[in-house]
Design goal:
The complex is a heterodimer. Chain A is mainly alpha-helical. Chain A folds into two domains: 2-58; 61-274, MetI-like (MetI-like fold). In chain A, 76% of the residues lie in helices and 0% in strands. The radius of gyration of chain A is 24 Å and the shape is flat. Chain B contains 16 helices and two strands. A two-stranded antiparallel sheet of chain B has the order 1-2. The chains are: A mainly alpha, B mainly alpha. The interface between A and B is large, with 96 and 98 residues.
Chain lengths: 279, 371
Amino acid sequence: MKSAHKKAVLGKVIVYIILILIAIIMIIPFLWMLSASIKSDREVFQMNPFVWIPENPKISNYKDIWTKIPFVKFVENTVYLTIVVTFLQLLTSSFAAYSFAKLHFRHKNGLFLAYIATIAMPWQVYMVPQFIMMRKMGLNDKLLAIICLQAFSAFGVFMMKQFYEGIPDDLCEAARIDGMSEYRIYAKIMLPLSKPALSTLTIFTFVTTWNDYLGPLIYLKTQEKKTIQLGLKMFISQYSSDYGLIMAGSVLSLVPVLIVFLCLQKYFVEGVAATGLKG
Amino acid sequence: MSGSLLYPAIIKERRIFMPKMDDAQKAAKINSLQEELTALIGAVRIETDSKKKRRLIAKIGEYNRQIDTMKSGKLLSRETKRDLVAYSFIAPNFIGFCVFTLIPIVFAFSLAFMKWDGSNPIKWAGISNFTRLTDDIFFRAALKNTVIYCIGTVPLTMIASLALAIILNQKVIGRGIFRTLSFFPYVASLVAITAVWKMLFHPSKGPINNILLNVLKVPQKNLPQWFTGGLVLLSMILFSVWKYMGYYMVIYLAGLQGISGELYEAASLDGANTWQKFRYVTWPQLSSTTFFVVVMLTINCFKVYDIAIMLAGGGSGELTTSATVLVYYIYQKAFIDWDLGYSSAVAMVLFIMVLAVTIIQFRGQAKRERA
């Protein structure tokens, strides 16, 4: 009995050691980023001795980044794009998903098949014809192009549908008998119940749009249309040895995503489980 | 929806001008429909082919609906109304999806057989785009690198995320914090964190090589050049595992939470040790999750572009043959060389590979489920 207890304790210790190691590997690059963002270029690579917080923290890095490149404009564009895309994505996907999950109508399977068939299709396969088409529509070098590109994904519809299917049909049936219209059932019953799925979809959409690089690279050409990612990349290639500044810009570009993630993460595992993303 | 607003006006008009004719016509129409319906029902009775029978039954439903609509005097049957409501839910997303996804996909397939520079008239090229691929050195390098990157990243990420999920599914202190932390790399933007990685792994000044030099006593000239030559792919693989394992961990966590505790109790009663529990309970129970993870991982690996550009691309963002990947080549051929047909042919290769992986996985999954 005693040896079994010993074994259990040993097991726990090993688990904690592994966990702490993994946590360190996960977090070190971020800590390094924070630390380097308040250092001068010379201090960044100083190893002997290595300090996390330099004696004279160079907070000015955080001021200079706004003047060296039009960072305000980049932030504005990215915030605008991300909010519009996330809003449209949540609204249209949950709307369509309600119909696929809870209503019966003609051509339902055919329409849904169109969505499913494109889920495994990488965007990169059709990005070129898509660009040509958008250019014909006069959307080249317009923020609207990125919105059209990101806002109507098959993924969102699929995810929300999986979640709605887990909500009992009786609920809608009862509401229908009470004379509620489908639109009210969607707004009053389904939406409030789908917080975990909506949070998960918000995290995914927000993160993808905020961090997207290839889409804006193809569509956004002029300086004042660029997003944070493009601007930061441009800055890195122009001032490749201004390490402190690069890191300050990087930290700033991460803050909004991390805030959104931390706010919604309590629903996240639940959301992934309930939307059947696990397959 | 705007269509339905028009109907009441039309109906009113008809009632004013020819109410009696309408009624008589209606009765005649209903009668003729009823006759056809009886004939159909008779036909169903004697029909033996099940396929034809089903079609006939569907037709009967259609007739019944028509008759109901006629009798009730409403222009839209209940079914049509129901369909319209359903379509109104789908329309906002579907229209966007159709225009910006479906049409470009169809366009991409046809473009692979054309020759086009984006402004001059399109020319038919047959399969010449594909024959050109076979002796294109840069394409072959891109294909090879993408496949190697996949083969390295998929199993490593899968194992790491599964292990992490199993650990974090136990009762450990600070579980929530660990979960959140391991998800950080996934939400962080590539541009920012690749900048950090490039500093950490800087060949001459970075702390990693510094540790190799001073602690592990690796000679100066043997210090690894992480972002050039043969090591580039390794760096990309390590980076991807680090970045994406948190995401797949969440998926595995969801899978683990779906396994009933009774299975483990039963295994304990039979005297199974930890490994045996994993081997005979956890692993088989997770097979559908693993299927999903592997498919998603493979697809995402084939799509790799940004990681290569940011880790290995120089200031101008160009890649050499040691680091080039398929998507980079698609991008370059289309937007730098404006060789759109050829670029689409490369895209087709990418698509076929993704499709093949998905089909193989599906087959394996179906087999396992049958067994």
